[in-house]
Amino acid sequence: MGVLSGKVVLVTGGGRGIGRECALLAAQEGASVVVNDLGASVGGDDLGSAGPAEEVAAEIRAAGGQAVSNSDSVSSMNGVKAMVEQAMDVFGGLHSVVNPAGILRDGMFHKMTEEDWDAVIEVHLRGAFNVTRATVEHFRNQGEGSYVLFTSTSGLIGNIGQANYAAAKLGVMGLSRIIAMEGAIKSVRSNIIAPFAWTRMIATIPVKDEASAARVDRMKNGMRADQVAQLAVALASPEAKAVSGQIFAVRGNEIVLFDQPRPVRSVSRMEGWTPASILEQAMPSMGASFTDLGATGSVFPYDPV
């Protein structure tokens, strides 16, 4: 008996990387799994293939589990509805969605094309909307359901060259929070994970100097996709019924709980503010509490546990 015994789970991006590990572990923990993967490149700019999803589904079945494959795109609402219908038709239900599907199209913002912006927003933010909107009424009606959505420290903290990805992933944070708030009365939960793991997406990070080479090496050797899957499957389980609306990161064997934006300091002036007084008094007063412009590496400078 596993933590997902008798449950049906949809895992997007399940053909490779974090999604693959989530699908395999969900099955090991007793779930029937719909393994979705478009089978496209990291940039999402080819026609894709049903192969990766079916390979994982076949591996689950060979180990004695229950799984089917699906190669629709999370960026298509009709495609997501087909995933849900498949879960219902084959397994008779759906209880959780784990959504690590994604693409990368990195570039400095002043050089970013509309096409690259739209493509990343479409998969990550629109995709998160699609998988939640297509299932939330079903979850509410059955009085049970969980979402494990994926954010990124690129959005939570920032990373140069990823404006499109950061904007989408921070949008997922807001989406998850509202789903959790609105779903609480119906036992519908939503949490997000910012993963640190060596995947083919991370392998596209350019190595330009010794510092970035060391960072990539730490990720490759010390932070694995299967470690992220442990938390994702735990959050998908009904045993995590008290956990909703939270932001986590997984970094090797370390699980991090992030805070969420709350006021850190305020200044008041009884006679009101003018632009000049704001510059002369307010900004200097609050300056010590400003968040610096450091990227993820400055917040997590130590080796993974």
Quick recap:
The chain is α/β, with parallel strands linked by helices and 305 residues long.
Q: Would you give an account of this structure?
A:
This protein has 10 helices and 8 strands. By secondary structure, the chain is an alpha/beta fold. It has one domain: NAD(P)-binding Rossmann-like Domain (Rossmann fold, 3-Layer(aba) Sandwich), CATH 3.40.50. The longest helix is centred in the middle third of the chain and has 29 residues, at 114-142. It has an 8-stranded mixed β-sheet, with helices on both faces.
Shape: globular
Q: How would you name the CATH homologous superfamily?
A: NAD(P)-binding Rossmann-like Domain
SSE succession: EHEHEHEHEHHEHHEEHH
User: How much strand content do the residues show?
Assistant: 5-15%
Write the layout of secondary structure elements.
Layout: E1 8-11, H1 17-28, E2 32-36, H2 51-62, E3 66-70, H3 77-91, E4 96-99, H4 114-142, E5 145-150, H5 153-158, H6 163-183, E6 188-196, H7 210-222, H8 225-236, E7 247-251, E8 254-257, H9 275-286, H10 296-299
Parallel strand pairs: 1-2, 1-4, 2-3, 4-5, 5-6, 6-7
Antiparallel strand pairs: 7-8
Descriptive labels:
305 residues, alpha/beta, Rossmann fold, 8-stranded mixed beta sheet, 10 helices, 45% helix
